[in-house]
Amino acid sequence: MSFPPDPADEPFWRTKRLEEMDGAEWESLCDGCGRCCLVKLEDEDSGDIHYTDVGCTLLDGTTCRCRSYPTRQKIVPDCVRLTPDAVRQIRWLPPTCAYRLVAEGRDLYWWHPLVSGDPTTPHEAGVTVRDRLAGPEEDFENEDLFEQIVEWPAETPFEPLSRRRKV
């Protein structure tokens, strides 16, 4: 490795802004944790966001992926499509979300498949919703969701191993 490092040797998420990524790069940022697909409650007074352990009707609790990703917004009209602008505005993206990290000029965590080279490391690191879901949203009444509030989706379990980058 030469010093200073050759920018061509850097992975795309360290050298590109979200707007500069192609479709494949954009999609590869998702680590498949499923945390963004949890039902969230917003406190009307404080604006605080509370995650629940209840999944979207399309969230597969084993794979932690959407069961109908290409048509998700037709099936679930309030499903949020992430765009660079949306990523910068949405306050409920998990702290480990690669879209959020890149937007904030931070690096990906060691367990992200783009870093580890292994799509199973998010599960091994314990950052996914696997084995943590109480069920799909249709199994709960709105008033029951308050009993399903959990803290773990808002937690950052590990620090990234690599350096931070400037925005």
In short:
The protein has 7 helices and 3 strands. By secondary structure, the protein is an alpha+beta fold. It has one domain.
Give your account of this protein's structure:
The protein is built from seven helices and three strands, in the order H-H-E-E-H-H-H-H-H-E. A hairpin with a 6-residue loop joins strand 1 and strand 2 (49-55). It has a three-stranded mixed sheet with strand order 1-2-3, with no helix packed on it. It has one domain (12-154). The protein has 167 residues and is α+β, with helices and mostly antiparallel strands. It is globular, with a radius of gyration of 17 Å. The protein has helices at residues 12-15, 23-28, 72-75, 84-89, 98-103, 113-116, 121-124; strands at residues 38-42, 49-55, 135-136. The model is unreliable at 160-167 (pLDDT under 50). 24% of the residues are buried.
Secondary structure elements and pairings:
Layout: H1 12-15, H2 23-28, E1 38-42, E2 49-55, H3 72-75, H4 84-89, H5 98-103, H6 113-116, H7 121-124, E3 135-136
Parallel strand pairs: 2-3
Antiparallel strand pairs: 1-2
Give me some keywords for this one:
167 residues, alpha+beta, three-stranded mixed β-sheet, globular, disordered C terminus
Which overall shape is indicated by the principal axes computed on the Cα atoms?
globular
* DSSP, total strands: 3
Mean pLDDT: 90
- Quaternary arrangement of the chains shown? single chain
Helicity, as a percent range? 10-25%
- Please tally the helical runs, counting DSSP H or I stretches of 4 or more residues: 7
Structural class estimated from helices and strands: alpha+beta
Q: Can you list the strand order of the major beta sheet?
A: 1-2-3
Unreliable spans are 160-167
Order of helices and strands: HHEEHHHHHE
